[in-house]
């Protein structure tokens, strides 16, 4: 019995051994054959897979293709003429102002600050000239002459009535520079909305470093290189901000703004500001104080004269020189500044705006250049002003 069992086990062992041998042999054959086939085919295979991948991605792009003519992103020069909506150019330096973002979406996008110090592209800091107007820009020829030859160093943004069409020739620096605009009611918070909209659109271009707000009645009184250097080299913003203890200043404060805004923090200043990039980001990012002004600063309180000066005084006082670089004449008294017409334009008048003997602080020094821009000028002043550009304004 026992032996029989051993015999049987022996036979079984032998059988299993044989099976194993066959298995191993066949594995070896398959394995070696595999290596040979693999080696022979590897080059073809590589090619095959690469072309499959290519086909796959090309098909995908093709199915989502947008024709460059009606797209809103930059066109990249590839044979297939596809749009690269995530290119660094599209993101950091958009060249088309058309968009359909709401203010909420726009302000959020504009509030983004790069955490990384260096830019992955050659960044030439630009000055954003932001024109807030109802319609036409009567001083356009003067500005066009001012900008001529300096296109690398500035960007233009125009906020006008939504139905106003900015009709300028295609070679004008103003061509295509109207931002998506909404109605503005002077004296209301809608005016601040328009200012923020200009700032936010300009912030989308990461090349913009300084932001100046101008009206249709503003003129430049220095040439572009002087203005550019003055602004780019300044450590501070030129936002007027002062305490006026009269009914035109403190009198416009409302106790309903307590406890967030105290009377001693309340400031007044010209609407026509100039600011550096981080200050512009602070303005478009604020909701809390903007909302308080929207609720409690109504005529005779004018948000455009108090919101930014007060907000900066409360949180970023050291970043502003507390003076404006836009000259204006309040000497006549009354609620509106003087408007200069053709008959008032003389060489000595423009020279006195450029330098009247007053010194202004600039960085840690002083300068006789206090104003770079001036208002208000009637459309009739254009011709005599164009006559003075080369002799007085040097452009
Ligand atoms: C471009 O933007 C405009 C306005 O926002 C929009 O109407 C249009 O559909 C956009 N075009 C493309 C191709 O996305
Ligand atoms: C735009 O201006 C040109 C000349 O400057 C004029 O011929 C054209 O009619 C104007 N278009 C509109 C829509 O005003
Ligand atoms: C910007 O894009 C819009 C819509 O895609 C187009 O209609 C418009 O002509 C473009 N503007 C410029 C200045 O290229
Ligand atoms: C501007 O005013 C703030 C206070 O709001 C002050 O801290 C700052 O020193 C002033 N700047 C200059 C240049 O006078
Ligand atoms: C402009 O000139 C006219 C005529 O000489 C004068 O009456 C007017 O006061 C001047 N305007 C200003 C703002 O100086
Ligand atoms: C010069 O201009 C400043 C600011 O506009 C003014 O305060 C000052 O009185 C003027 N000085 C003279 C001498 O006109
Ligand atoms: C412009 O200057 C020229 C010559 O200097 C003069 O003849 C002309 O009357 C001036 N035009 C105006 C509008 O001042």
TrEMBL record:
A single MF term (Gene Ontology): glycosyltransferase activity
Keyword vocabulary terms for this entry: Glycoprotein, Glycosyltransferase, Membrane, Transferase, Transmembrane, Transmembrane helix
Protein name as it appears in the record: Glycosyl transferase, family 14
Gene Ontology cellular component terms for the protein in this record: membrane
Location (main, coarse): membrane
Compartment(s): Membrane
Source species, domain of life: Eukaryota
InterPro entries referenced in this protein's UniProt entry, alphabetically: BC10-like, Glyco_trans_14
UniProt membrane topology term: Single-pass type II membrane protein
Claim: Membrane is one of the keywords in the record: yes
């Amino acid at each position: 019995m026992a032996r029989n069992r051993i015999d049987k086990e022996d036979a079984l062992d032998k059988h299993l051994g044989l099976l194993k041998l066959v298995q191993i042999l066949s594995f070896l054959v398959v394995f070696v054959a595999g290596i040979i086939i693999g080696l022979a085919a590897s080059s073809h295979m590589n090619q095959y897979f690469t072309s499959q991948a290519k086909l796959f991605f090309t098909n995908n792009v093709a199915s989502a293709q947008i024709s460059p003519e009606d797209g809103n992103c930059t066109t990249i020069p590839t044979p297939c003429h596809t749009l690269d909506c995530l290119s660094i150019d599209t993101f950091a330096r958009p060249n088309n102002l058309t968009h359909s973002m709401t203010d909420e979406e726009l302000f959020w996008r504009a509030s983004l600050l790069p955490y990384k110090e260096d830019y992955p592209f050659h960044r030439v800091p630009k000055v954003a000239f932001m024109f807030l107007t109802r319609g036409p820009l009567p001083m356009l020829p003067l500005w066009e002459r001012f900008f001529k030859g300096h296109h690398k160093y500035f960007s233009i943004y125009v906020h006008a009535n939504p139905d106003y069409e900015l009709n300028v020739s295609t070679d004008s620096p103003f061509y295509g520079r109207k931002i998506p605009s909404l109605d503005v009611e002077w004296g209301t918070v809608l005016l601040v909305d328009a200012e923020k909209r200009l700032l936010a659109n300009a912030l989308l271009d990461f090349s913009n470093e300084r932001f100046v707000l101008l009206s249709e009645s503003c003129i430049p009184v220095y040439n572009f290189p002087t203005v550019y250097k003055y602004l780019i080299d300044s450590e501070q913003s030129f936002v007027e901000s002062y305490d006026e203890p009269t009914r035109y200043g403190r009198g416009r404060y409302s106790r309903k703004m307590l406890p967030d805004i105290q009377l001693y923090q309340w400031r007044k200043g010209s609407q026509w500001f100039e600011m550096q990039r981080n200050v512009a980001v602070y303005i478009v990012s604020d909701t809390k104080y903007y909302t308080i002004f929207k609720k409690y600063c109504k005529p005779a309180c004018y948000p455009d004269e108090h919101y930014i000066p007060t907000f900066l005084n409360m949180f970023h006082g050291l970043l502003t020189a507390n003076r404006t670089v836009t000259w204006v004449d309040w000497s006549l008294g009354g609620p509106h500044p003087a408007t200069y017409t053709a008959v008032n334009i003389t060489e000595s008048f423009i020279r006195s705006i450029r330098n009247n003997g007053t010194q202004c602080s600039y960085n840690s020094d002083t300068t006789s250049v206090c104003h770079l821009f001036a208002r208000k000028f009637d459309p009739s002043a254009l011709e005599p002003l164009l006559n003075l550009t080369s002799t007085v304004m040097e452009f």
